[in-house]
Amino acid sequence: MLPRLAGRLIGLGALLAAGTAGAVTAPMLVVDVDSGKVIYSQGATDPWYPASITKLMTTYVALDMVRQGRASMDQLLTISEAAAAEPPSKMGFKPGTQLTLDNALKIIMVKSANDVAWAIGENLGGSIDGFAAQMNETAQRLGMRDSRWTNPNGLPDPRQWTSARDMAVLGRALLRDFPENRDLFSISAIQFGRAVMPNHNGLLGRYAGVDGMKTGFICSGGFNVVASANRNGRRILTVVMGQASARERDLKAADLFDYGFGQSGFGWGGQTLNDLPTSSIAAPPDMRPYICDKRRPMPTDADSSAVTAGAAAGGNADNANAQLMAAGAPPSSALAFATMNSAALRNRALPPRAPLQPVLVWTGRDPAESAIAANDDAAPAKPAAPRVKVAKPQKPAPSRSIAATGATVPQPRLLARQKPATPAAAAAFASTGPATAVIAEPKGHKAAVKPAAKPAAKDAKPAAKPAQKAEAKPASKTASKPAVKSARNKDN
């Protein structure tokens, strides 16, 4: 039997009080999906708090009801006051909001929204207790002998627990019984309105071949994941529970995948999920003192992005095994997992995440009808009103004549074309010159003004007759009308 010391919790040792004379380690399991053969097992039947991987059970019950004709993917679910009151992670929908079962399942698989999972339970089961009864009945039928369910979202309840083995049984059943719905577990992100929410699963888009399934976190259970990966037509399911952070959970799962894909069928020992012995532990250990230390910020299941933050690129389990083999060490699974706690590999990082491909979700039946609701009800991001570029208020262009106000009209280009009313006015205009006109030029216009000397010299001869004509026209026709035209051009 593989030493239980191998693969212990990073930083915690793995000795956790469990209410018995013994001690437990963080559960881990690697299984071949098609055959059900166990590739690696550690504490696989020990009871554990599931957190949001509960939503895999919720999804199975919902899809099974659709298959039986008791529900449909396009039926509307209503958010109740109780659902809306569930704590985060949540969408924040208002009571009375409706959405299809199809959209609800996408949301709980990606966003892990507790309010939406609660609504699924209430609407499909008639009540939370009624839905929990269906969860327990389905679990027994599937052979999940270590599980007890009380709610559909996985929020803390001391009566609700499962095991790594049972979650592997459930994962296999989902992939086997609903192949047409496998895309539910591999959505990289959802988009609701303008908000794009990435999947909490930090392995998606980072580890080659990973195509699902679900993560979970509560203080009492630590960071859990049920993940599937496919390489060259061979599918492996990995379950990791009780890790101290999302980063450590993701790295541990990646190492388990590396080990699983590196093994041949002859090294599995012939043990199946049904052959795993029953645990001697009576109740799940409480991880809260280790995971949610009051002296540190509260960890979240959404911090998988920290996988690439501040960590140097490093090797993987395959590289570590290669080094061990070069040194003459046997490539046993115990050594493979022991390397995960070595100082040389502690700062490893998974590759950067592949670009997200968001899937649209909405409230109501039709995405067009939910456009307004998406902006009003979405909690992940406060929607803003559409940006409209509003021009700054401008002072109205002067339309009064120079003679009436004594001010310079801020239209030098037009002013230069006017004929002075009298010889005296011409002389005054010539004395100011183009400099005065340039100062009054509004921002954005070029100061194209003809020299003042020419108009003064050219118009020195006219006397009374031009004066009457100039006083009648320039003040209204020349100074007023072009100013309005200029303001319109700027607004456009």
UniProtKB/TrEMBL annotation:
Similarity comment: family membership: Belongs to the peptidase S11 family.
Chain positions recorded as substrate binding sites: K214
The organism's place on the tree of life at top rank: Bacteria
Upper classification of the organism: Bacteria, Pseudomonadati, Pseudomonadota, Alphaproteobacteria, Hyphomicrobiales
Protein name from the UniProt record: D-alanyl-D-alanine carboxypeptidase
InterPro entries (UniProt xref): Beta-lactam/transpept-like (IPR012338), Peptidase_S11 (IPR018044), Peptidase_S11_N (IPR001967)
Record region (Disordered): 376-411, 441-492
Domain (Peptidase S11 D-alanyl-D-alanine carboxypeptidase A N-terminal): residue spans on this chain: 28-243
